[in-house]
Amino acid sequence: MIPIKDDIPSRSYPIVNVTLIVINVIIFFFELSLGDNLEPFIRKFAVIPIKYFYSGIRLNDGSVILFSLEERIIPLFTSMFLHGGWLHLIGNMLYLWIFGDNVEDRMGHFRYILFYLLCGLAAAGVHIITNPESDIPTVGASGAISGVLGAYMMLYPFARVIVVIPILFFWDVVKLPALIVLGFWFVTQIFQGTLALAIETTAKGGVAWWAHIGGFVFGMLLVHIFKKSSRRPTYRDLWWERYG
């Protein structure tokens, strides 16, 4: 199920959402330009869970590398703007483009960027806790974007989302309520995350499922604090007025 568009027009230009997308794309092209320097760059600015449970590591030659406070804090933010490949980037930016503008609309620009960063931090925290022994660098905006998805589902559960559903060799385009689209997405994350814990695949690399889950739940909870207090008709109000 691949979303391609929703049916809620923004009341204001989503400057923060567009800026986030542009920054992510620019940084990805910078990554592509690094060549052989990409791996040390990623290890420096990605989240590596083991750093948060040990003061350092011992190398094969007997020397010890200690982890500084700076090396633990900075990657929590920088990892949100790094991606591991084209599909990783495009998938994340597609979801942010479709759902982020309306969440920004309901929160306002400043609250939205703060909300986005907090969801990213929460997602990173959940990933660290669920993978304490992992020394695999974790990158991607998906944890923060998961928070945006959680907020969207709470704000616009009855919004119609156009999705593409692959059926064997064919593609079907349908409109479904956001509650179903994002609810299905969340259930698949829980299933995959539970399976990953059971077979310990996340410690060996792969998708940070629990970062997605943590970001989504945090976004659902935090949206009530960050949405504007002024009472304007929501999509749910309009939907119930017309169809309820």
What would your notes on this structure say?
The model is unreliable at 239-244 (pLDDT under 50). The protein is mostly helical. The strands form two sheets. A three-stranded antiparallel β-sheet has the order 1-4-5. Strands 2-3 form a two-stranded antiparallel ribbon. It has helices at residues 15-33, 38-45, 69-78, 86-107, 109-130, 142-155, 178-199, 209-226, 235-243; strands at residues 2-6, 56-58, 64-66, 160-167, 170-177. Helix 6 (142-155) crosses helix 8 (209-226). It starts with a strand and ends with a helix. The protein has one domain (2-243): Up-down Bundle (Rhomboid-like fold), CATH 1.20.1540. It is globular, with a radius of gyration of 19 Å. 37% of the residues are buried. It contains nine helices and five strands; from the N terminus they run E-H-H-E-E-H-H-H-H-E-E-H-H-H.
* Rounded radius of gyration (Å): 19 Å
CATH fold topology: Rhomboid-like fold
Shape: globular
Helix percent band: 55-70%
What is the CATH architecture annotation? Up-down Bundle
How many individual domains? 1
TL;DR?
This protein has helices at residues 15-33, 38-45, 69-78, 86-107, 109-130, 142-155, 178-199, 209-226, 235-243; strands at residues 2-6, 56-58, 64-66, 160-167, 170-177.
